[in-house]
Amino acid sequence: MNQSTEQKFWALLKQQSAYEEAIGLMAWDMRTKAPKKGIDNRSEVIGILAEKVHHIQTSEEISKYIEELKPKADDSKLRSALEDAEETFNRTNKIPAQLYKEFVTLQSSSESKWAEAKENGNFKKFQPYLEELVRYNQRFAELWGYKNHIYDALLHNYEPGVTVKQLDQVFPKVRDALTKLLNNVQLADAAPDPSLLQGHFPKQRQEQFSKEILKKMCYDFDAGRLDETIHPFAIGLNRNDVRVTTKYDEKDFRTAVFGTIHEGGHALYEQNIDPELSFTPLATGTSMGIHESQSLFWENFIARSREFWENHYPLFQSFAPERFKQIALDDFFFAVNEVKPSLIRIEADELTYCLHIMVRYELEKALISGEIKVKHLPELWNEKMKAYLGIVPHNDSVGVLQDIHWAGGDFGYFPSYALGYMYAAQFDAAMRKDIDVAGAVRSGDFQLIKEWLTKHIHQFGKTKKPLMIVKDVTGDGLNPDYLISYLTNKYKGIYQF
Amino acid sequence: MNQSTEQKFWALLKQQSAYEEAIGLMAWDMRTKAPKKGIDNRSEVIGILAEKVHHIQTSEEISKYIEELKPKADDSKLRSALEDAEETFNRTNKIPAQLYKEFVTLQSSSESKWAEAKENGNFKKFQPYLEELVRYNQRFAELWGYKNHIYDALLHNYEPGVTVKQLDQVFPKVRDALTKLLNNVQLADAAPDPSLLQGHFPKQRQEQFSKEILKKMCYDFDAGRLDETIHPFAIGLNRNDVRVTTKYDEKDFRTAVFGTIHEGGHALYEQNIDPELSFTPLATGTSMGIHESQSLFWENFIARSREFWENHYPLFQSFAPERFKQIALDDFFFAVNEVKPSLIRIEADELTYCLHIMVRYELEKALISGEIKVKHLPELWNEKMKAYLGIVPHNDSVGVLQDIHWAGGDFGYFPSYALGYMYAAQFDAAMRKDIDVAGAVRSGDFQLIKEWLTKHIHQFGKTKKPLMIVKDVTGDGLNPDYLISYLTNKYKGIYQF
């Protein structure tokens, strides 16, 4: 029997997806289980399979199928798959193989130089590498092309359809509102006592609590598992095998509890994608920002809410040291919602987090467009930290050198974190119009919430672009008011100003 | 730069080996960690990657490289790799794709029919499937070809170079000697008390003990790990990632202790293959039988020896229930070496084990050559069990239906188990000429033994065929006297006859 072109197209995507699933499992394994001596060999294997994926994505064969099928594609799944494949084909083929190879080499030497520079707080040592990385990103951006701003071409990798023009309309509003809000918090009379939260939390009990909460979130353990790692992540191998990882700090339960819920939010997204999309590149989250909206929604909008702890504090107490029985819910709740400007992004609370992103977005946009120079970064970084967060790093290790992203050559990535917050606030507001979220959280029954998310967001996978989901769910475009008003209301209530 | 044909040949083998490593990890994962709902998807992915391996093995491309390189191959690694690739190419291409596809379908329906038949002790239901499986194996054997006996063509899949002629010279000697030995054991006055070994053995303590023993065996935990599974196995993903699995029975420590040591023996083999062979099909054990010789050597010749327990009994006691402190070493040692004819192969002791294999070998050889019919199997099975082991199954579930091998279409596989015992005895005797094995075991320092095995067996991977290793190590061919004399001496000593 002869296969139709459409069948051949799906078969090729299925092959690609098989490679990707194998790569995904190997990556999970390297970060959770693999013995250290096997890592080099495994990395080579991943490289070989990644090369196969690249080969399919840029092949004459796929290009031929796209050409042939596009004019007559009448169902939406096929259209989405063709668009996705065509875009990948075009973007990937625009970068000459030699140029990309140089970039990969640069990436890996830069990452180790960065680690060294960070260790010693020595930005100068890293500066020439960063200059090169910026130049490569500029060349890629030119090759990919853009309409208005060169940085748009990079943004597109993480948040397709979002532009500098849009960000520049909303980010300054978020920045100014949060800076003002932070100021109010700092002037407030009320203050939490985070020392309440200290204690010894045996790993095993944290693990049990984490599993209980994941189950309540409707994370399906028959289609996933929870493991330990150093840098937590969630990974969807297929919708029936979506794994969560977490880290246990025996001195601070917040790392695992909020971390697991965060990754659980990512995992729920991947577990609830329409099975029709399986074995296609559409069977994953649609963008970094939408993915982050799902993890942040669960971590903050749900698990840092008062309703959540009204229900789950007794469960937490049953796993926590005895003395938590003496700590009142209100004091506990206030302590886990402490706002405190931090030098380090990944330690930031939900109120100040986006300010860290604003620092990075403004700087990397200006770097890529050539408005500022790499050598001025530390100084500019410190100025912005002072202006937005009111604190200044005492050295570059806890300043401009703290994140790996730029060292890995990733520019255009940071905005997705702030977009994730904004999307989450917009989705949260829309959800509260439809269903009784507070009631569900208070009763500890998240089924309704999970169903709402599946219906409005998860099921679509990559068939809808980020802003299309926002539009369909909220009837609105990207709108900073939701995040601002959520944070204002919440912290006004907590800090009583 | 243009690649030479040899470089292209190695690159192709490296690709194949990358697929195989990915498949291996996925298989390990399915049997240890994977969530149940993800299994179907994962199986499809494995199928797709296995198809890629098959495609390489049977490609025009590899055939061209073989043709071109064979006449001028002057180093032994290249020669071995060419021979291996050529043999795979020839054998695989001899089976028409359609015929093989039918066989795969038959295999999977047969396995489920077999499970059903075993459950109900109903051989008749399974009979037509087994008849078909025999016919397919006969056709494959004819297509592959053979010199003397049709069964040789099947043997070749598991023990290349070993023939019916050789087996028929040695197996009857083993069979008759063991039957006689069993008889002597059963007539002896001395008897062990296996009830001594009963108790509650918490999984965690068994795991700790298992890990201690693996470390002492020089199993490298930086290049491997130990996990739990239902049907234990060891798997070499690459020489720096060789994983052991085991099963913990909290009522019987022997399952995990001897099982882990057995799998550890397999793992040591894979960990100590010459790194030069990495990323080629030569980087694995040379045959089923030689592999089994390594696991059996450690499980029986080492870990069921008196010297072993002289050293390790105190360590065992420290992990075992308190009352083992009252059990004398001699009584313990006798109990773990109890000889007792069992209906079930996988429950057999080291003395009777090979008798189970003789039953199977004689029957499957006669089936394939057409001397006997499938419908007579249960009757013939029971006759042979009576004759060799002195016991008769009360129903076919614990008789002819007990093993999955035939239901999976695997004929020619069983002899490797008995060959493993014979090889192990030959290697053991050779080793004792070179080094003080008993002294090493008694002192609990296995480094010398591991080095001997690496030097004489492990390092070669698949570059030496099984009988070549036997010849090089022992100066002898396949010789049953070593196994017979090892078992006779050991059990004469223990049972005092």
Report on the structure:
2 copies of one chain form a homodimer. With 497 residues, chain A is mainly α. Chain A has 2 domains: 5-93, no CATH class; 121-497, Neurolysin, domain 3 (Orthogonal Bundle), CATH 1.10.1370.30. Chain A is 63% helix and 3% strand. Chain A has 20 helices and 3 strands. Chain A has a 3-stranded mixed β-sheet. In chain A, strand 2 and strand 3 form a beta hairpin. In chain A, helix 6 (123-144) crosses helix 7 (150-158), helix 8 (164-187) packs antiparallel against helix 14 and helix 9 runs parallel beside helix 10 (253-271). The longest helix of chain A has 28 residues, at 5-32. Chain A is globular. Chain A starts with a helix and ends with a helix. The mean pLDDT of chain A is 97.
Which descriptors apply to this entry?
homodimer, 20 helices, 3 strands, globular, Neurolysin, domain 3, 63% helix, 2 domains, mainly alpha, three-stranded mixed beta sheet, 497 residues
Order of helices and strands of chain A: HHHHHHHHHEEEHHHHHHHHHHH
Terminal-residue CA separation of chain A? 73 Å
Quaternary state of this entry equals homodimer
- The shape of chain A, in one word, is globular
According to DSSP, the number of beta strands of chain A is 3
Radius of gyration of chain A: 23 Å
CATH architecture name of the largest domain in chain A:
Orthogonal Bundle
Helix content of chain A: 55-70%
- The number of helical runs of chain A is 20
Helix- and strand-based class of chain A? mainly alpha
Beta-strand portion of chain A reads under 5%
Largest sheet of chain A: 3 strands, mixed
